[in-house]
Amino acid sequence: MPLDINVNLSASNITSPGLLPFSRHARSHFLPTIRNGIVTKSPIYVLGNQSADLDSIISAILYSYFFSRNGENEKRRYVPLVNLPDVPSGPKLRRLRPEFACALELSISSSSSTISMQKKGKDKDGEDGIVKLLREHIITVSNLHPEATGKNKKLELDCVMVDWNNLPHKSPQREEGKGSIEGLSDLVTFTVNGCIDHRPDEGFVPPLGRLPPGNPRVIISGPGSCTSLIVREIRERGLWPSSSAVNEKRPEQQINNEEGADWEVQLAKLALASILIDTTNLTAEGKVTDVDRDAVSFLTERISSSSSSLTSTGDGEWDRTAYFEQIQYAKTHSLDWLTTNEILGRDYKDWTESALSGEKRVIGIASVVRPLNWIIGKARDEDGESANTGNDELKLFLNKLKKFAAERCLDVVSVMTAFNGEAGQFTRELLVWGLKDDHNDTLEKFSEMAKEQLGLQKWNNFPVEGSHEHTGGLCIWQQENVSQSRKQVAPLLREAFTS
C-alpha cells in the first residue's frame, strides 16, 4: 500500500481494508507531526500493559482498527503500540512473542497448519517471511523511542489504555490521567483519552465525564480476556454489526462477498486468539464469563457465515479447537528459545506501592507457562553445570532470579507457574521472595492471608519453604486453587507488603 493512501475505515465502508493494509498504514504514520518542538498533529496511541502478552497486543490492534471507523474521531488516527521498550518489531519480537506471530499469521492465512516457529522461506532480501510481516506492520515502544529522542522538551501524546488502567510513571505534578511508561518516561507524557480493562479499577483513569469525547471508560473486573470487553464495546457502538444486521440495513451491499469478507475473518480470528488463550478455549474454571462466551460466539459466527476463503482449508470447515491448539503450542514451546532472564521477563508486571511508613515498595510478578523444575533446569543448563540436584540446583536459579529483581529494583519478586501436569491436570505453583530482612514477618502474613483463598500447600520438590538462607525469606507453594491467576494474586501481595 502506498504510504500516502487514504485508508477509509468509516463504518459505512462495507469493504473495509484488511488487517495488513490497516497495520501497514498505521506503521508508516505512527509518528506525531512536530513543528518548532510542538506536536501539531498526533495519532491516539492504543497501549497495552507492560507484559505485552497476547491479550494486550491484540486488544490494542482490535481497538485501533475499529475506533478508526468511529466518525467522532475520524481526523485522528489510532495506532496500536506494543509495550516493549527494548524489543523492536522484527526478529526479536518473533522470538519473544511467537504466539502473537503465530496468531497474526493464521489470521491472514487459509492454512490450518501454519506454525510461526517453523522455519520459513526467505525473500530476496534474505528475510524470514513472518519477520518481515512483523517488521512492516507492528510498532513497539522501542520503535517509537528514537523518534522521541533529541526533542527540546517532553512530547505530549494521547493514548487509550487497554488491558490495564494505571500508568507506572505519574506526571511530576500528579495531573489527572497523565503519566508515562518504561522506555519513554523521560521523553513522553501520555494523556489518557480512554480505557478498557478487565482488572480492578486503580483510580488512575479519570471519570468518563472528564475524558475527551469518543472513547470509552470500561473497567470491569471479571472477564477472562480484555479482548472480550473490546468486542462488546465495538458491537455496542455499531462498529461491527452481526451479519443479519448488516444485511437488513444494506440488502444491496451484502457483506458476505469475497472483497468485503476477508477483513472480518482476519479480525475475528485474531480476536479469538487472545480470548481462547486467556480462557483455555473457554474451559478455564473461574475465568470464563458471559462476556467471553458472547464474544467467542459472535466471532465464530462472523467466521462461519463468511464467504471468505480464509474460513476453510480444503479439509473442511474452520476448526476453532485446532486454531486454539496451534497458538497454545507456539506459546508453550516458545520458552525453549529463551534464556532464563527472558523467560522471567516475558510475561512480567510490577507495581510500586506506598507502605504505611511512607516507604516505596516495588513488587514484581513473572508468569511462566512451565513448571519451576523446568525453569530451574534451564538455569542449570545455561551455566553448563552438571546434573545437580536439590538446593544446589535451586541456588543457580535463585541467583538469576535475584539478578533479575535487582535490575528492576524490586523489593519483592514472585514467580507464578501455570502448566499441565504429567496426568494432564492444570497445575499452578507460586514462589514469593521478600528480598529484605524486614520482609520475613510480612511473608508469613501473606501466607496466612492467602492460604485459604489460593489453596497454598507446601512445595515438596525442594525443602525451602520459609528458608532464610537467602536475604529476606523465600516461600514456594503448590497452589491448589488453580482458578486464581496473577489478577487475583497481585492484590494479595500488594496488600500484604504495604499494610
UniProtKB/TrEMBL annotation:
Superkingdom of the organism of origin: Eukaryota
Cross-referenced InterPro entries: DHH_sf, DHHA2, DHHA2_dom_sf
Database matches in Pfam families: DHHA2
Domain DHHA2: 324-497
Entry's Gene Ontology cellular component terms: cytoplasm
PANTHER family xrefs: BNIP - RELATED, EG:152A3.5 PROTEIN (FBGN0003116_PN PROTEIN)
Protein name per the record: Exopolyphosphatase, putative
